[in-house]
């Protein structure tokens, strides 16, 4: 009876948590753009489907091809945001990516900021990975991986990358999940050149699920990822001259960026970020002492986090984390019931 009661209680708390995540996306107030205003098709043109109002895009992966689109301009710093819904059912080997990069312009010294959504076998949750590369530093990637705190195939959730000359913050809905502050020791590893925004879906059977153990099974296809509420706030830059495309562009863009409030890490937002990471992070390069015997310069090592990870940076015992999750969800549910803005 006790076990049944706890299961019911957990289901109620999880439902409240999902409602909170869904509603929090509304609090990020940025202007959305139609596809034709800011984007163009990148590959798999026949697998890109746009809505009648041009504000909703579906990307498909089938046996013939994946698909993707790219921003029409490059940006020097900015906020890159979209509401995304991921494919459901058996999605092993499938990767959906929402990221910034300049690899097509700076092939050997490219910068990149990634959300990579990693599919899984049926019944297992999606995971999301964030990456940071600067100046071609792919051998010094700064990956972190997290379990999703909701089912990303059921509803749209907003994913945002904030990139300034001082800090990078990844957001899920209105919750910051990762912050990297620029340090002198990072040098060129901090992304600093103009980047384009990309959204793609593709077959990554060779690595995405259990190191390539599970491949894409096209009998469950086509796999569809959906994007809406596409938002770009940043300074348009000529990638060759490294100069703004208009004299007033950067001033206006910086004002718009500051107006979102997302670059300000308040105490409540920092607490929310630590709570998310403690409960959902499953890998961090900061705790991977095999790969990085000397700590990466931007890493803040927290003893509360460190004790949960092996020396290879992966989580030790997930079932312990599940117990801690129920505690976090309880406090989140209480905060929500009191009408508090948990992360502002």
From TrEMBL:
Gene3D superfamilies per UniProt: 2.60.120.200
InterPro entries: Beta-glucanase-like (IPR000757), Beta-glucanase/XTH (IPR044791), ConA-like_dom_sf (IPR013320), XET_C (IPR010713), XTH (IPR016455)
GO molecular function: hydrolase activity, hydrolyzing O-glycosyl compounds; xyloglucan:xyloglucosyl transferase activity
Domain named GH16: residues: 1-227
EC code: 2.4.1.207
Active-site residues, as the UniProt record annotates them: 112 (nucleophile), 116 (proton donor)
Keyword Hydrolase: yes
GO biological process terms, semicolon-separated: cell wall biogenesis; cell wall organization; xyloglucan metabolic process
Function of the molecule: Catalyzes xyloglucan endohydrolysis (XEH) and/or endotransglycosylation (XET). Cleaves and religates xyloglucan polymers, an essential constituent of the primary cell wall, and thereby participates in cell wall construction of growing tissues.
The family this protein is said to belong to: Belongs to the glycosyl hydrolase 16 family.
Protein name listed in UniProt: Xyloglucan endotransglucosylase/hydrolase
Organism (species): Rhynchospora breviuscula
């Amino acid at each position: 009876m006790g076990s049944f009661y706890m299961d019911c209680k957990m289901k109620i708390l999880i439902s409240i948590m999902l409602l909170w995540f869904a509603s929090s996306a509304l609090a990020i107030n940025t202007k959305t753009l139609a596809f034709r205003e800011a984007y163009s098709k990148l590959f798999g043109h026949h697998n890109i489907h746009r809505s009648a109002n041009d504000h909703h895009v579906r990307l498909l992966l089938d046996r013939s091809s994946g698909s993707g689109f790219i921003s029409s301009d490059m940006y020097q710093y900015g906020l890159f945001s979209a509401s995304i819904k991921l494919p459901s059912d058996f999605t092993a080997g499938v990767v959906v990516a929402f990221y910034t990069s300049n690899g097509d312009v700076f092939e050997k010294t490219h910068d990149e900021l990634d959300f990579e959504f990693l599919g899984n076998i049926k019944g297992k949750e999606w995971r999301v990975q964030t990456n940071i590369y600067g100046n071609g530093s792919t051998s010094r990637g700064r990956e972190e991986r997290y379990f999703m705190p909701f089912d990303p195939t059921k509803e749209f959730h907003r994913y945002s990358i904030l990139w300034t000359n001082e800090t990078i913050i990844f957001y899920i809905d209105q919750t910051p999940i990762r912050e990297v502050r620029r340090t002198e020791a990072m040098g060129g590893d901090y992304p600093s050149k103009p980047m384009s925004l990309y959204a793609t879906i593709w077959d990554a059977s060779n690595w995405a699920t259990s190191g390539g153990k599970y491949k894409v099974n096209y009998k469950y296809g086509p796999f569809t990822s959906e994007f809406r509420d596409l938002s770009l706030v940043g300074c348009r830059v000529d990638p060759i001259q490294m100069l703004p495309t208009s004299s007033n562009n950067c001033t206006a863009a910086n004002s718009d960026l500051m107006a979102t409030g997302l670059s300000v890490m308040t105490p409540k937002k920092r607490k929310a970020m630590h709570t998310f990471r403690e409960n959902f992070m499953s890998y961090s390069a900061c705790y991977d002492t095999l790969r990085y015997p000397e700590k990466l310069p931007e890493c803040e090592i927290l003893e509360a986090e460190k004790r949960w990870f092996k020396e290879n940076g992966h989580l030790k015992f997930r079932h312990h984390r599940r117990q801690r999750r129920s505690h976090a969800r309880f406090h989140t549910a209480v905060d929500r019931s009191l009408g508090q803005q948990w992360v502002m």
